[in-house]
Every structure is written in structure tokens, then in C-alpha cells.
């Protein structure tokens, strides 16, 4: 028998996702981003009038950069896991992680570390 796990601890609930085109547009329109070797992390500070609290995440992994769906899904899984672990410490911001450069190799540990470092920069900056 498998023990029941709390869905809010292991999942990526809808309240922590950017789901609508307008939400993505507002983050891109804010024109603030952090850059790493393969990713751009766009962000927008959430106002107190926004519904809900905490950080929300949106992902953009273009097919032109990674042709195979399995590779795009790997990037998404790594990003969601990093976000899930760091979310309680993140400021209330809307984040969009976008793949901008094709990785030479899909080294899971290196990509996960790069994503985690970008998200941690949002915790240390007071912008």
C-alpha cells in the first residue's frame, strides 16, 4: 500500500502557474529579466491587488531549440521541480523561464543547477 502524499507538496497546482496569454504578456511587458547560459528568467513583481500570494511560474521551451518532445519535457520537469522546492522562499512574483540557447548536451544536473541558480537570484535581489 502506497502512503498518501499531500498534493500541494508534490504537485504543481494551478494557483502557482501562469496559464493565460495575458499573464505571460504582462511579464514580458515588464521587460525585466535575468540571464544565464541557456535561459532567460523574466519576472514581474505582483501587486497586492493580485489574487493569491506567492510566486507563479510559466515556462517557454521552443520547438525550434529542442525538436524532441522528450527533451522539451525534461526542461519543463527540471524547472517545475526547482520552482516547487524554492517556492516557499520566493517573493510574490510572476516568473517566466524561457530557453534561449540550445544546450549542447542535456546534462540534467547542470541544467537543474542553472535553473535553480536563476531562481535563487530572485530571492537575493530586492528589486
From TrEMBL:
<protein>
    <recommendedName>
        <fullName>Ribonuclease P protein component</fullName>
        <ecNumber>3.1.26.5</ecNumber>
    </recommendedName>
</protein>
<dbReference type="InterPro" id="IPR000100">
    <property type="entry name" value="RNase_P"/>
</dbReference>
<keyword id="KW-0540">Nuclease</keyword>
<keyword id="KW-0819">tRNA processing</keyword>
<comment type="function">
    <text>RNaseP catalyzes the removal of the 5'-leader sequence from pre-tRNA to produce the mature 5'-terminus. It can also cleave other RNA substrates such as 4.5S RNA. The protein component plays an auxiliary but essential role in vivo by binding to the 5'-leader sequence and broadening the substrate specificity of the ribozyme.</text>
</comment>
<keyword id="KW-0378">Hydrolase</keyword>
<comment type="similarity">
    <text>Belongs to the RnpA family.</text>
</comment>
<dbReference type="InterPro" id="IPR020568">
    <property type="entry name" value="Ribosomal_Su5_D2-typ_SF"/>
</dbReference>
<keyword id="KW-0694">RNA-binding</keyword>
<dbReference type="InterPro" id="IPR020539">
    <property type="entry name" value="RNase_P_CS"/>
</dbReference>
<comment type="subunit">
    <text>Consists of a catalytic RNA component (M1 or rnpB) and a protein subunit.</text>
</comment>
<dbReference type="InterPro" id="IPR014721">
    <property type="entry name" value="Ribsml_uS5_D2-typ_fold_subgr"/>
</dbReference>
<dbReference type="Pfam" id="PF00825">
    <property type="entry name" value="Ribonuclease_P"/>
</dbReference>
<dbReference type="GO" id="GO:0004526">
    <property type="term" value="F:ribonuclease P activity"/>
</dbReference>
<keyword id="KW-0255">Endonuclease</keyword>
Amino acid at each position: 500500500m502506497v502512503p498518501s502524499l499531500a498534493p500541494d507538496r508534490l504537485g504543481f497546482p494551478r494557483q502557482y502557474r501562469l496559464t493565460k496569454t495575458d499573464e505571460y504578456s504582462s511579464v514580458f511587458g515588464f521587460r525585466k529579466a535575468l540571464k544565464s547560459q541557456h535561459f532567460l528568467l523574466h519576472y514581474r513583481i505582483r501587486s497586492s491587488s493580485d489574487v493569491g500570494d506567492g510566486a507563479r511560474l510559466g515556462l517557454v521551451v521552443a520547438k525550434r531549440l529542442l525538436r524532441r518532445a522528450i527533451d522539451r519535457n525534461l526542461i519543463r520537469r527540471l524547472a517545475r521541480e526547482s520552482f516547487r522546492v524554492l517556492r516557499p522562499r520566493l517573493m510574490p512574483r510572476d516568473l517566466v523561464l524561457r530557453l534561449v540557447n540550445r544546450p549542447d548536451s542535456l546534462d540534467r544536473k547542470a541544467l537543474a543547477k542553472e535553473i535553480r541558480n536563476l531562481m535563487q537570484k530572485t530571492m537575493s535581489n530586492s528589486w
